[in-house]
Write a structure and sequence with these properties.
The protein has 152 residues and is mainly alpha-helical. It contains 6 helices and no strands. The chain is flat and about 65 Å long. The mean pLDDT is 79.
């Protein structure tokens, strides 16, 4: 009983400590652009979510509980733990779009690229966004195909 109380106490420290530290990051961010905050917040969410998952994974190993979605011995990691893979995929897509938005907003381009961007900003934004959407859809399709279980 004491070990279970200790486990859940440690889990609550991880979760609430992560939320508290993220709150401290956002408190000092009065003059930081929103895109930078999105990048930092997404990276922090990615780390905390995976830390909680790894902690729960090791707790399941210690208590000999099964948290796999697929009981097939030949299943890959995506088939065994699809929830964490989909959550990571969503966070990576959010991070990629945030980085893309920050890149567009940033004016540290070379002079020639800045002139092209200045002449055709809508086309440049649409082309970049279309590429990002296509890469995201391609990644989602690949992850979905990886997570399907073959019942042969």
């Amino acid at each position: 009983l004491i070990s279970f109380v200790a486990i859940f106490t440690a889990l609550s420290f991880i979760v609430f400590g992560g939320i508290s530290s993220l709150d401290n990051i956002f408190l000092g961010a009065k003059d930081i652009p929103v895109t930078k905050l999105m990048i930092v917040g997404t990276i922090w969410c990615f780390c905390i979510m995976n830390l909680v998952y790894v902690f729960i994974f090791f707790i399941a190993k210690l208590t000999e509980l099964n948290m796999k979605s697929c009981q097939d011995v030949n299943a890959n990691l995506v088939q065994k733990y699809p929830l964490i893979w989909w959550c990571n995929f969503v966070l990576i897509v959010i991070l990629a779009f945030s980085c893309w938005a920050y890149y567009i907003k940033c004016e540290g381009f070379s002079f020639g690229a800045f002139l092209v961007l200045k002449q055709h900003p809508t086309a440049y934004f649409l082309a970049g966004s279309l590429i990002m959407i296509l890469v995201s859809i391609y990644g989602a399709v690949k992850l979905y195909k990886l997570s399907k279980v073959d019942l042969k």
